[in-house]
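hey
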């Protein structure tokens, strides 16, 4: 087991590799999304709005975000004509988000891009290696979620 005392080389840092991969994935998705005036974050939101509508309070957790961080994104989606808001018929306190026709088209495009990326990764990296990667990332998240680092 490797233990670091005072210094760590960048290429040995776990967070460096995760951040580097995420930066590249994010850049790739943003480049694709920019062709329709969107962003990776907007595409991800479109992918997480269900056909029967999704309440704005449930969308943030589905995206791994804080609910208060979503307000600007929802406004942007609405301004671009990708979603519409409707008050829930049974519970007037709930606002549901629905995709417009344009929003569904954009979601389909985002879905195509995500599938292309995933298919290419699955083509080039053996399942056993991906299983190990998923297990490691899950364990990193578990360590963080359980606050095991600073206790």
């Amino acid at each position: 087991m490797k233990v670091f005392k005072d210094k760590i080389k960048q290429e040995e840092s776990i967070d460096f590799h995760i951040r580097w991969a995420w930066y590249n994935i994010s850049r790739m998705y943003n480049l694709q999304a920019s062709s329709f005036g969107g962003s990776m974050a907007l595409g991800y939101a479109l992918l997480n709005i269900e056909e029967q509508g999704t309440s704005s309070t449930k969308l943030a957790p589905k995206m791994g975000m804080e609910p208060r961080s979503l307000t600007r994104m929802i406004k942007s989606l609405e301004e671009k004509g990708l979603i519409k808001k409707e008050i829930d018929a049974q519970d007037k306190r709930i606002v549901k988000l629905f995709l417009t026709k344009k929003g569904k088209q954009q979601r389909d495009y985002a879905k195509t891009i995500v599938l292309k990326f995933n298919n290419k990764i699955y083509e080039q990296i053996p399942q056993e290696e991906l299983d190990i990667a998923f297990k490691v990332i899950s364990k990193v998240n578990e360590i963080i979620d359980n606050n095991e680092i600073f206790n």
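Strands lie at 54-55, 83-87, 95-99. The radius of gyration is 19 Å.
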